[in-house]
Amino acid sequence: MTVTTLPPAVDRTPARTGAATVRRDLRAWVADVADLTEPDAVVWCDGSPAERQALLDGMVAAGTLIPLDPVLRPGSYLARSDPSDVARVESRTFICSRAQADAGPTNNWRDPDAMRAELAGVFEGSMRGRTMYVVPFSMGPLGGPISQLGVQLTDSPYVVVGMQTMTRVSRRVVAMIDAGASFVPAVHSVGAPLRTVSGTAVADVPWPCNDTKYIAHFPETREIWSFGSGYGGNALLGKKCFALRIASVMGRDEGWLAEHMLLVRLTSPQGRRYHVAAAFPSACGKTNLAMLTPSLPGWRVETLGDDIAWLRAGPDGTLRAINPEAGFFGVAPGTSVATNPAAIATLDHDTVFTNVALTPDGDVWWEGLTPEPPEGLVDWTGQPWEPGCGRPAAHPNSRFTVAAAQCPTIADSWEDPDGVPLDAIVFGGRRATNVPLVAQAHSWEHGVFLGATVSSEQTAAAEGTVGELRRDPFAMLPFCGYDMADHWAHWLRVGATLDPATRPLVFQVNWFRKDAAGRYLWPGFGENVRVLAWIVEQVDRARGERTDVGAVPSPVGLLPAPGALDTSGLDVTDEDLRALLDVDPRTWAVEADLTEDFFAGFGDRVPAALHHQLALLRERLSGT
Ligand code: PEP
Ligand code: NA
Ligand code: MN
């Protein structure tokens, strides 16, 4: 085995000792994994542009990437995955805590020792014939007080390039680890060795992967082992695996929060700045809200993050937030100049697209990019594509991977290591009925209740069929690394440590409410700034900086007072607005019963404060 550019060892502390030891010797661990997986070479990555270009060139030569037209889409590439490897595999995602109860009822639990034995079997020789890349990275600005270090080992150059975009890959991380910093070790193999045990060569393919997949997390030892997939959420281990599942456990133990939230700065016409974090389940428009182009004159929205936020109390008692990522791994279909012009501008150059369609002139296309598809498309599987053929040209989960710095609306402070002070936290879902356009929580505890009970409809459900809801508490259902009800208790604890004078206000939003005819009542997209404006004006009122009446009480929270939500120039009638803010006590009584059932699934781990919030909701409902 050849080992290239191994940095000189500074620290030679003993290799991993006990299961609970988080401090590890980096080189010993890398050597252990290489012994297990048997790569032909080990390459220590430095995150440099030259390294990236060499990897991209190599993938073009190997047929993994198709270079796009250098004039139409400079520095950009198309990857076509194996048709079976296109999304996160929640059924093969495991939380391997010592106690099953600590994983909670919403995660797949496996005993850590049993899983280690199973993983040793699948990883044995899994990198034969390939290069193992050592990718040292930081989630958040290097050395920042909220940031964390990780090292991913992977046999996929596509994953190395993705990690370079989505995280901060740097040799400085190795120096920090050598100087004593702890790191999260993350091992990834596509599970497609190029030699059998007996040494017979196996031909490579453009997108190697394995039908057997494991996305395994060891919360106590802060380890990640991922096998069989090259797809983003399964393979770019800094993202969902570290920044959400492992980080949520670190946050639980250390008093901070790792959340599935976008992060934006809003500037009012008066020049006042506010920071808002918002949690929505997948496919509810997080990236669109993060890059919103405001329709209201004078308001400005700047992007800080579109998927993950880490929240930690600052020394001054404010809740500070960073986006731990360095790029966007977004869904392409539906993204257009009309829905998200900032995203379209971001994707102008230096973007890796995965599973979108290819145009005859070497550019990309996906459903929704333009009203009409260009002629002569090649679909995401490489087949010629015609409109009306019954297949989508781009896979519905096709993605772009692009540096956040390329976004024209990126906030100048997006890399501030201390983060930004949060003024408001928003929870949202896709609900055709019942849930108002916007409501403000009565208190922090009520806000945690709103987050805990978030529900969403995958498709437009029939009117009033509240039973068809999918609960997605805190939009963290696939991403919480420990018991979800403990997560709610943790939110209550963190809130109690914050200065009540500056503690963020909590809101619930629903852009997706429909009338009886199935028509969306709210235009959404750039018009959502009107709701954000009301939210931050409520922040001003809570801080005594405005004295006008902004809200009226309702059983489910504070609603915009008449006239407080700016709908000027909108095609939203007074009747529409009433329907958008309507709270029907009868259907809400059903919601309350469903919430009781939902809580029952978490047994006695549900905090008493949330049972109390449910009782208060019912009290308010019966008072109407
Ligand atoms: C992912 O799958 O990597 C991902 C970002 O997931 P989602 O968009 O569903 O949050
Ligand atoms: Na299970
Ligand atoms: Mn996400």
UniProtKB/TrEMBL annotation:
It comes from the Bacteria. Keywords: Cytoplasm, Decarboxylase, Gluconeogenesis, GTP-binding, Kinase, Lyase, Manganese, Metal-binding, Nucleotide-binding, Pyruvate, Transferase. Substrate binds at R88, Y231, G232, G233, S282, N397, S398, R399. InterPro entries: PEP_carboxykin_GTP_CS, PEP_carboxykinase_C, PEP_carboxykinase_GTP, PEP_carboxykinase_GTP_C, PEP_carboxykinase_GTP_N, PEP_carboxykinase_N. Binds 1 Mn(2+) ion per subunit. It is an enzyme of class 4 (lyase). Pathway: Carbohydrate biosynthesis; gluconeogenesis. GTP binds at A283, C284, G285, K286, T287, N288, R399, R430, F525, G526, E527, N528. GO terms for molecular function: GTP binding; kinase activity; manganese ion binding; phosphoenolpyruvate carboxykinase (GTP) activity. It holds the Pfam family PEPCK_GTP. The keyword Ion transport does not apply. GO terms for cellular component: cytosol. The active site is at C284. It is found in: Cytoplasm. Residues 29-252 form the Phosphoenolpyruvate carboxykinase GTP-utilising N-terminal domain. SUPFAM superfamilies: PEP carboxykinase N-terminal domain, PEP carboxykinase-like. One of its GO terms (biological process) is cellular response to glucose stimulus. Its cofactor is Mn(2+). PANTHER family: PHOSPHOENOLPYRUVATE CARBOXYKINASE (PTHR11561), PHOSPHOENOLPYRUVATE CARBOXYKINASE [GTP]-RELATED (PTHR11561:SF0). Monomer. NCBIfam families: PRK04210.1. Belongs to the phosphoenolpyruvate carboxykinase [GTP] family. Catalyzes the conversion of oxaloacetate (OAA) to phosphoenolpyruvate (PEP), the rate-limiting step in the metabolic pathway that produces glucose from lactate and other precursors derived from the citric acid cycle. This is Phosphoenolpyruvate carboxykinase [GTP]. The gene is pckG.
